[in-house]
Amino acid sequence: MESAGTEPESCPPAPEPPGSPALPAEEPERSEAAPEPQQEAEGVPPPAQGRRPSGPGSKGQAKRCGAGKGGRAKRGSTRRAGEEGGRLARRAHVTVDSSKAKTSLEALKLSLRQLRWREFPFGRRLPCDIYWHGVSFHDNDIFSGQVNKFPGMTEMVRKITLSRAVRTMQDLFPEEYNFYPHSWILPEEFPLFVAEVRMMKESDPPWKPTFIVKPDGGCQGDGIYLIKDPSDIRLAGNLQSRPAVVQEYISKPLLIDKLKFDIRLYVLLKSLEPLEIYIAKDGLSRFCTEPYQEPTLKNLHQVFMHLTNYSLNIHSGNFIHSDNVNTGSKRTFSSVLYRLSSKGVDIKKLWSDIISLVIKTVIALTPELKVYYQSDIPAGKPGPTCFQILGFDILLMKNLKPVLLEVNANPSMRIEHEQELSPGVFENVPSPVDEEIKVAVIRDTLRLMDPYKKKKKDNQLPDTCMDSKQRFPPISSRLPQSNLQFSKFAIVRSQLSENAADTKDELLEPGSTDQLEHISKNPEASLPSLCLKQVFPKYAKQFNYLRLVDRMAALFIRFLGVKGTMKLGPTGFRTFIRNCKLSNSNFSMASVDILYIDITRRWNSMGLDQRESGMCLQAFVEAFFCLAQRRYKSLSLQEQVASLIDFCEYHLAILDEKRLVCSRGITERRAALVTCQPDGLHLTAATHAPLLNRMTAANKRTDYRNHRS
Ligand code: ADP
């Protein structure tokens, strides 16, 4: 885990009373292009989106738009369009509440300035479009707009929870999820850890493994240590006091200049449903500060050799701060890729492996996130929509295989670091490499989340708003040093429309005043192309088959019943069994109850969330695996589970159809479509094609099973 300066990442957030204002230590600030204050008092109407109630100001807006039209009719159409467009653009300033941004504030401010959006550093009486939280979703009560955190994400990426979620996927798809090191959860799996290591050593005597012990909820390398054997005294001492994950240590990492390094990649989870994932095209590489040697009992304790954490290595005398993003102990990932490609490494393949790792990891996290989401923001209640930037820490093995180390829900967005000027005297100095990467990630995340985007497009006027790619390539592509676009200096350039006197001749073709107007109306035109690349749903076809637990979570959520709950009660579980037609003469409802009690009791005894009683999603998944194994004995676990999900979805679809038709209560139509009879449903092919397709698929699977057995 990395952090600029001393900012902790993904450590459990310090509890904060709801609604307590975490004000930045500076004066309130208005973004440069902010409209007059009275505009806020009138209430700039938010766009209709998500659960946001439609704003009261929409009528007023239309009025303002229409006013004075006649007077302007005499002017040239370009000019008129420009003015109207200007007003449209002004009206469409996105509002961002940055009062909870904490250490991401500086990078956020720079991003907002580049976008010329309105910042509210002390919060706002009226709702904002976007709320930027530095720590977690639960910073405030928000009923509309968008928040840059998902409920439950911090919990989901804790070391134990992440390991559990990946483990479930490894059970189903062992090949696909081999990018995560073999891990055991302590203390509960200590006996398993001992037994498995002994077995592996017996079957492969030359194997001399090393393990890394990571305390749950730890960060910045805190409390991490390496061991050579499960009998290590340190492990025994900590076992009961601190839950942890013990993991196979990757002892042959890829080295650059003999140093171990890892990669911090920024990933935007834009939406959970439908799943939308973006990856930043560049990230950071954090280097160790002692030459690497494979672990031996002698060097196990050398953190500067084995741990790539910035927060640790910065204390090494060998740490190199560099103003150049291509050198030093923290560099851009692109500079590392450049170096690797010059040595003949297939960079395309490496990127494709990394993208695949990211998508698969997010797929492992989403089922439980959906449970949190429906609990915090139940459907039908007013609430915000969410997005989140995640920090993925990835290690490259010597053979270039990427390995997932961890996911940070709260990656450091600091763009400065502490420097010791003289003994004991520290100063915050800008960190160019952090600024280059992080400001772009925040800015482009905001661009993707822009609630007015569609509206802006619709409002573009044909004679002034050109097809920007053809008529006016982005300024960034014309600037000699595109890197400058990301720096504080570049803001000056990106505000070209306001201070264009010197640069306009250089950048614009003669006679292109409308182009200048275009930039002034649309700051987007002066920004570099997006640094975030969509990978899902773009590659959905390749990865959708992995989303089995997601489908199980949908079943689980359906039977949760009470809004806001995260655990399934015994009645909900029984209803699930009954509605999905899972009990029969071989599996009575009494057995169902025993299964429920056994699994639920075990999961609850693991000391997980005790606030609610009942069956958590992970326990439900385990119960589902049991049911699938009982029912489809001869198949692989993956096939068993997929078949049972199909079976359940099929029966629930029939049930839904039946309820729908019955609730319509139109007897004649019902007779034509479907007959509700005690023995079930009779469907007509034309009206129930999707359902019949599922039935055919289910029949095919039965045939397949018969064929195999
Ligand atoms: P933290 O959250 O405390 O930073 P990490 O899981 O990121 O914990 O681990 C800290 C560092 O330890 C990583 O940055 C990496 O250098 C090293 N590390 C972690 N797991 C492994 C592993 N399985 N193999 C090799 N090195 C590892």
TrEMBL record:
Molecular-function annotations in GO = ATP binding; tubulin binding; tubulin-glutamic acid ligase activity
* Residue stretches of biased makeup (Low complexity): 34-43
Gene3D superfamilies for the chain: ATP-grasp fold, B domain
**Ligase keyword on record:** yes
The protein's UniProt keywords, in alphabetical order, are:
ATP-binding, Ligase, Nucleotide-binding
**Which superkingdom does the taxonomy of this entry point to?**
Eukaryota
Spell out the Pfam families in the cross-references: TTL (PF03133)
| Any one Gene Ontology BP term | microtubule cytoskeleton organization
- Which residue intervals are annotated with compositional bias (Pro residues) in the record? 10-21
Q: Which InterPro entries match?
A: TTL/TTLL_fam (IPR004344)
Report one GO cellular component: ciliary basal body
- Region span, Disordered: 1-100
In Swiss-Prot or TrEMBL terms, this protein is called Tubulin tyrosine ligase like 11
